[in-house]
Design brief:
The complex is a heterodimer of chains A (449) and B (337).
Chain A (H helix, E strand, L loop, with lengths): L6 H39 L3 H35 L1 H33 L8 H30 L5 E3 L2 E3 L3 H5 L4 H29 L5 H35 L1 H7 L11 E3 L2 E2 L5 E2 L2 E3 L2 H7 L22 H27 L8 H27 L4 E3 L3 E2 H4 L6 H29 L2 H8 L8
Antiparallel strand pairs in A: 1-2, 3-6, 4-5, 7-8
Chain B lengths: L2 H35 L3 H33 L1 H10 L1 H24 L4 H24 L5 E4 L2 E4 L1 H6 L1 H28 L3 H32 L1 H9 L1 H19 L4 H23 L2 E3 L3 E2 L7 H29 L3 H4 L4
Antiparallel strand pairs in B: 1-2, 3-4
Classes of the chains: A mainly alpha (449), B mainly alpha (337).
The structure holds CIS-heme D hydroxychlorin gamma-spirolactone (HDD) and protoporphyrin IX containing FE (2 copies).
The site of CIS-heme D hydroxychlorin gamma-spirolactone (HDD) has 28 residues of chain A, from helix 6, helix 7, helix 10 and helix 11.
Main location (chain A): membrane
GO molecular function (chain A): electron transfer activity; heme binding; metal ion binding; oxidoreductase activity, acting on diphenols and related substances as donors, oxygen as acceptor
GO biological process, one term (chain A): aerobic electron transport chain
Chain lengths: 449, 337
């Protein structure tokens, strides 16, 4: 590349590449088991083979994405030690516990996933097979829980004392359950569910747009949009609480996200725009009082501005755009799913109209974009700290001379994996279209106009 | 027993678990590819698929468990091994990634593809070779620490007979463990043809694995005399290992007790692996790091051990269920489910 070799910079880029790639599959991996469970449950309760088939086909695609989640996760886990040895040496004393428990959660999930996938027709009672997906849902969500407590700890380290770089008086539970944990964990988990709902919904919407009239796809869309609406509202509520958390504990992150320079009450929320050379905000949409409300619930809340912080401790201001994208997409997803549910509920309205279907299709990739934006905002917004207030990112990195080559190797790997994943999934479902599978299993394929 | 010893024992046990289940998996990949090349694939393909499909992810978790656990119990290892192993570690990750994902692609996704099964077979041998680098460098002499910077000495590593000995030992052991398990599985499946072929593989790799074991034993004496001396103190464990090997091979040769034979192979590797590990102590990385100066704080140690016990209570019944459904269920094994 065009700049001088710096292991810290390359380690950061490589970490971003691995996490950014992993988190796509991890998010889907946490969310989809829940959707599978809901579909299988509906199939049993309504005695409707369409839902059962939905669960089956989702599970089949899920195996492919899980595989990539597992291998990239393994890469991430090892890279933490390979790229950030100094950080792990220090932080290992406090975050060992949640990471260890995460491994148990994986173990639990992996065992039951193996059983679940290979026992579709082995039990007489469908209920027994349904019960096997519960541990998968719990395992996936638990692993998200544990790993996110680690990330929360990096934002709000506590539960130890640091004297001259040496850690003592460690309390692992206090470290795990720090002030960042409640909002962070709940926001991450609920957005995993939201994303899964929209990714699956988008697939159904594509089929409907292509003119497929099977009731199967309509049921899939209905199921994903109803759950999507619930999770979208939940996401916005928890997102609001995350803002209040930032105001209280990481005000510099909030100020950077909102280009909020002067400490003041009745602060406006700034959408879009750009900063000119004098740090004046131009061409932005301002929502009066909204920032104060996001931060403290009332317009009178005083929000600390960037000018009150040591400039050496501030994150880059471009995180603003990532925060905005996330919030905008959140609003869009909520709007789309609620509109669908509403039109579906109204007699005589057609919720499967073209524009709405296109919005649902867009919702799939957008929700993943929101996940990426959210993480970039949260992680870059913590800079220059790797362990907020205790250790700078540059102090945590490896000193090895070869991170650049590794970066290119891994970028190639992820590109190949990503492309093959898409090709394989497409082949898998195109070769075995749902109509044919319904025929094979003797399921009535109702067509609805 | 001190916390340090408990910690390293837990981790070593998981690594042993990985050694066995991963060997079965790695070797199966190689046999699958090899038999395809020699047009005998139809004979054993089924056996391998039936066993591997439900368990491949579980295998990976054994490894994850080990490397997450070691940073938890011994954070200091992250510094030494993390800095030194950037390249070999990354190579291992890439191989694991290719293997895991292409296995899933081939099994669930697309039709039989020669390319996928080549990747699957080749990575099966390359991964053990690259992972054993960690054990090799732990013997000392391959790492320098100058002015605070840890570096791996590639010249030493690639020119050392010991390091190559370990690589070959790893590969032949993988093939032996795998073949002896698959022989047993084929006998349970009452698949005579597969049984014959796999039994022959097992007998082929039996002698090389024990001979390589002895060669590496000797080479270690040159590389790290201190470690070698304490290994000699544990000679009886190596003796157990040898006896288990001899009886196992005898059974397979005589076409009887395949189950017992596989258990004896496990005993063979258990005894040797733990004798190797126990005599390595107290060093995690000779001579820089011992289990005592690299250990985490006491509160964390207690928390980890508590989490470990709670986790085991959850895992053992689940693993039992998995084995009952896929390993000990005659109908499934014989392909009737
Ligand atoms: C589909 C994904 C998605 C959507 C629609 C939203 N978020 Fe989000 N957000 C995330 C996905 C996400 C995330 C990827 O899960 C993050 C990154 C780090 C974290 O804790 O969660 C996150 C972080 C995050 C943070 C930073 C937390 C921290 O650094 O501790 C705030 C303040 C918000 N979000 C607020 C919102 C608001 C007000 C939304 C309005 C609807 C919103 N998010 C929608
Ligand atoms: C075990 C917990 C985690 C650790 C130890 C960790 C560590 C790090 C480190 C060291 C960096 C580089 C610093 C930087 O360049 O900004 C980073 C960046 C990043 N992390 Fe985290 N992280 C953790 C959890 C997560 C999670 C769960 C995600 C989301 C999946 C995530 C998303 C990111 C992203 C997107 C970046 C890139 C930021 C950039 O562009 O620099 N992190 N993380
Ligand atoms: C919010 C962010 C993250 C979520 C939701 C998440 C969730 C997941 C999920 C669902 C899987 C697939 C496991 C399975 O299906 O069995 C997975 C794999 C994995 N993840 Fe992540 N992860 C996140 C970030 C991280 C980070 C930062 C690390 C690094 C420490 C990490 C380490 C791993 C490992 C080691 C695996 C492989 C486990 C296995 O072999 O089964 N994850 N993760």
């Amino acid at each position: 590349m065009f700049f001088e070799y710096d292991p810290v910079l390359y380690s950061r880029i490589l970490t971003y590449a691995t996490l950014g790639f992993h988190v796509i599959f991890a998010t889907i991996g946490v969310g989809i088991p829940l959707m599978i469970a809901i579909a299988e449950w509906m199939g049993i309760k309504r005695n409707d083979p369409h839902y059962t088939l939905l669960a089956r086909r989702w599970a089949r695609g899920f195996v492919i994405t899980v595989a990539i989640g597992v291998v990239t996760g393994t890469a991430m886990g090892l890279q933490l030690s390979l790229l950030w040895p100094n950080f792990m040496q220090t932080a290992g004393h406090t975050i060992g516990l949640p990471m260890f428990m995460e491994a148990f959660a994986f173990f639990f999930e992996a065992i039951f996933l193996g059983i679940y996938l290979y026992t579709w027709d082995r039990f007489k009672s469908q209920m027994k097979h349904f019960l096997l997906v519960i541990p998968v849902v719990i395992g996936a969500t638990a692993s998200a829980f544990f790993i996110t407590t680690v990330n929360a700890f990096m934002n709000m380290p506590q539960g130890f004392e640091m004297i001259d770089g040496v850690i003592s008086s460690v309390n692992p539970l206090e470290a795990m359950f720090n002030p960042a944990t409640p909002t962070k964990v709940s926001h991450v988990i609920i957005t995993c569910y939201l994303t899964a709902a929209f990714v699956l919904g988008a697939i159904a919407a594509v089929r409907i747009l292509k003119g497929n009239k099977s009731a199967y796809h309509k049921k899939a869309l209905h199921l994903t949009m109803v759950t999507g609406a619930v999770f979208a509202i939940g996401t916005a509520l928890v997102g609001d609480l995350s803002g209040k958390y930032l105001h209280e504990y990481q005000p510099e992150k909030l100020a950077a996200a909102e280009w909020h320079f002067e400490t003041e009450t009745h602060a406006p929320l700034i959408l879009g725009g750009f900063l000119d050379s004098d740090n004046e905000v131009r061409f932005a949409l301002e929502i009066p009082y909204a920032l104060s409300i996001l931060a403290g619930g009332t317009p009178g809340t005083e929000v600390t501005g960037l000018n009150d912080f040591d400039p050496n401790d501030l994150p880059p201001l471009w995180v603003h755009y990532f925060f905005d994208s996330m919030v905008f997409i959140g609003m869009f997803l909520a709007f789309t799913s609620i509109l669908f549910v509403f039109m579906n509920w109204k007699k005589g309205w057609n919720p499967f109209n073209r524009p709405l279907m296109m919005m649902v299709v867009a919702g799939g990739p957008l929700s993943i974009l929101a996940i990426q934006s959210g993480w970039i905002f949260a992680e870059v917004g913590r800079q220059p700290w790797i362990l907020n207030g205790f250790m700078r990112t540059s102090e945590g990195a490896t000193t090895s001379q070869h991170v650049d080559i590794m970066l290119y190797l891994f970028l190639t790997l992820y590109a190949v994996l990503g492309i093959t994943c898409i090709v394989v999934l497409r082949k898998m479902f195109n070769r075995n279209p749902v109509e044919r599978e319904m025929e094979k299993r003797g399921i009535d394929n109702q067509e609805i106009e | 027993m001190t916390y340090e010893i408990v910690g390293i024992t837990v981790l070593w046990t998981f690594l042993y678990g990985y050694l066995i289940v991963a060997s079965i998996d790695f070797g199966a990949g190689f046999f699958s590819y090899y038999s395809k090349r020699t047009k005998k694939n139809h004979v054993i393909h089924h056996i391998i698929q039936r066993y591997l499909s439900p368990v491949w992810e579980v295998t990976n978790v054994f490894l994850v468990f080990f490397f997450i656990g070691i940073v938890g119990f011994f954070p200091e290892t992250a510094y030494y091994y993390g800095t030194a192993l950037l390249i070999p570690g990354s190579v291992a990750i890439i191989l694991l990634a290719i293997r895991g994902s292409y296995y899933a692609f081939a099994t669930y996704g697309s039709k039989e593809s020669n390319f996928f099964s080549f990747l699957y077979g080749a990575t099966g041998l390359l991964i053990p070779a690259s992972l054993t680098t960690v054990l090799t460098i732990s013997e000392g002499g391959y790492i320098s620490q100058e002015s605070g910077n840890v570096e791996l000495l590639y010249g030493e590593l690639f020119s050392s007979p010991y390091s190559w000995g370990v690589v070959i030992l790893a590969i032949v052991s993988v093939l032996f463990i795998s073949a002896s398990f698959l022989t047993y599985y084929a006998s349970r499946a009452k698949d005579e043809k597969a049984l014959e072929l796999l039994r022959r593989y097992a007998l082929t790799w039996a002698a090389p694995s024990i001979i390589m074991g002895m060669i590496v034993f000797y080479l270690l004496g040159e590389q790290n005399p201190t470690h070698f001396a304490s290994m000699l103190d544990l000679w009886w464990m190596f003796a157990i290992s040898f006896v288990a090997f001899a009886v196992a091979t005898f059974f397979i040769w005589k076409r009887r007790n395949y189950g017992t034979a596989f258990i004896l192979v496990c005993v063979q590797f258990f005894a040797a692996f733990f004798a190797y590990g126990a005599s390595h102590l107290p060093y995690l990385l000779y001579p820089y790091l011992t289990i005592y100066d690299g250990f985490t704080n006491e509160t964390m140690a207690i928390a980890l051990i508590a989490a470990f016990i709670a986790g085991l209570l959850l895992l053992l019944p689940s693993l039992y269920l998995l084995m009952r459904l896929f390993l000990f269920d005659a109908d499934y094994v014989e392909g009737r489910k």
